Amino acid sequence: MKHLFSTLLLSIAIISQAQMSDTEIDKKVDSLLSAMTLAEKVGQTNMYNGPWEFTGPVPQDENSQLKADNIKKGYVGGMINVLTAKGTREAQRMAVENSRLGIPLIFGYDVIHGYKTMLPVPIGQASSWDFDGVKKGAQLAARETAASGVHWTFSPMIDVSYDARWGRIMEGAGEDPYLTSVMAKAWIEGYQGDDLSDPLTIAACAKHFAGYAFAEAGRDYNTADVSSQTLYNVILPPFKAAVEAGAATFMNSFNDVSGVPATADDYLQREILKGKWGFEGFMVSDWGSIGEIMTHGVARDSAHAGELAFTAGSDMDMESRIYEFYLADLVGSGTISEDLLDDAVSRILRIKYKLGLFDDPYRYSNESLEKSEVFSAKNKEIAKGIARSSMVLLKNEGALLPLNKTVKSIAVIGQLANSKDVPLGNWRAQAVANSAVSLEEGIRNAVDSKTKVTFAQGYTLTKGRRDFIHELTWVDDQGEGFEEAIEVAKSAEVVVLALGEDCYQTGEGRSQADIGLKGQQLELFLRVMEVNPNVVVVLMNGRPLAIPEVATKAPAILETWFGGSEAGNAIADILFGNYNPSGKLPVSFPHHVGQEPLHYDRKRTGRPVTNEFDNGLVFWSHYTDMTNEALFPFGHGLSYSSFEYDDLNLTPTEDGVMVNVKVSNVSELAGKETVQVYIWDKVASLSQPIKRLVDFKQVSIAAGDSQQITFTLTKEDLGFYTNNYEFVVEDGEFEIMVGTSSRDHIKQSIDLTF
Ligand code: BGC
Description:
This protein is an alpha/beta fold.
């Protein structure tokens, strides 16, 4: 019997997967499915954690012998955290050479911003607004991952997030649904390429479906309370874009929405994702999220949790071990139909076929490729390019930047400035600790040999163990480093002061109630400014920070996020003018944490901030002690060039409007500008945001030159979803704004009829 099935599999394997059409794959899947027992089918829905690392709470019944036996029996579909060409080959061999049908395992891993060569954290990548660059970064990550035997990344995270307190804001593309949709497409196309069976591409996973970023009060895992308007117009669009971009898999989320844990959400997973949007890939649960349906108080016991999750469309169980123990009985008793099980298994097998795993289960486990590809000099150079374009020049008073390379002396100050670890960011996959180029190193690499570079630590943020799973230990810094820092600052021509966060302040489980500068950073900044006003603040952080004093007093501020392996060199390229900054914020920076959740695309309300209401009385939507506005708005980012906008022209078209604008580079330096288009549908059946991004273009403009830029807005850009999830476009007046940020633009109105 076993021989018969091996022959069947061999004949399946002869045709090259790259040439197989979807119909052919479906046929193969059907024929394999018909040969599978109930236990083997259930096995495909079961995912085990590998021996390398845990990224969530460890299940109590951890039993590696049982796991090994089950893999050999064909009772496991996929594994997480099994790494390296050698490790994956060993695990794959267990499954393929021992099980009755030899179905290969799929290996998944959290490659969030690179495998070993670290790219900037995702919020940084999104700050580039550069589709091709971000795609190239994902291609790099895919190559290193695939060469290490891993087929599947749990990325991109495309949760639109309004709340800087939420630590995972670092992992996404920020606060805007349109920009996040564009980035989702870039990441997915980059990871997956044109052909999933190419051994240098990997399957993507769009996560977390859905509503996870709307955790109340920005506290990770908290309940999410979202309206239909937010769900349909803000949260879902990037996920729809992910389906359109061909995302192979989706991951659901820990939170509940309207009382329904996302993992048990039939409406989101079956009706919308697999129904309305026609998603054909599979849905993996988040780590332990099937079991957590019980903790939410929605399932009585494990069997009930399994029933709810499976019925709702969660196809694969990551680390709850519930499908493993309960699914067969649920199907046996008729609680879950075998058709539903077949659907889930077909989805999983289909992706395995597309990855070419039936063709050659070891195709990704290639030691020589692993050696040449992972952390290669070529990859580091690419990462540097992406890091440069991810950085945002927030302020540059008196053109303090770029610095002259022949500057006589530079004081480099701050614990973050000589850290070779912080720039790697959190969710750093296989990055080696302390393997980044620090800011100090980057500066030393860039300057003239005669320039004196002096470092002083200034402040100390954290001490001891710093890693993915443990809480940070804060230092009770009493300003011990001030004296040295001030001395160094005094005697230097210019100060480069690194401020911000330890990279483990953002990421999963890293929410903060306070998003200012921790420890003695602000005090040190103020003291340094007193002795030397030529201070360039270099920010390293994974979330928007509330830094009003720094924003007011520092002449120059460069946002560098966590820039990855080559961060220091990339920052130095900008500081010394080898690269003209081009990044734009994908999130609003607040003046104060009390403004959170803050986002530019807010509603007008019945009592908006206009002269009409701001008349000395209190009856309008405002804070009595704070502006409503952002400190640095969404879309903001300066260049060493200066751009001007004029001649905005709107021409109605059959299904929308054509927007023309003239953008001029009025400086003496060639530069790149991101031209942004926002709309306001002024009177609609449901209240609309006062502005929302609908398109953007990046243009390089030579010094003194102008370019005529055209955007074609269609119904798709101008409409919105109703509370019944119907897309509508309504006639009436639209204000069209075009400019350099969500705050700084020129505008015109037009009446449109559709
Ligand atoms: C996270 C996911 C991640 C998974 C696997 C979970 O805790 O929420 O984003 O992919 O762990 O590591």
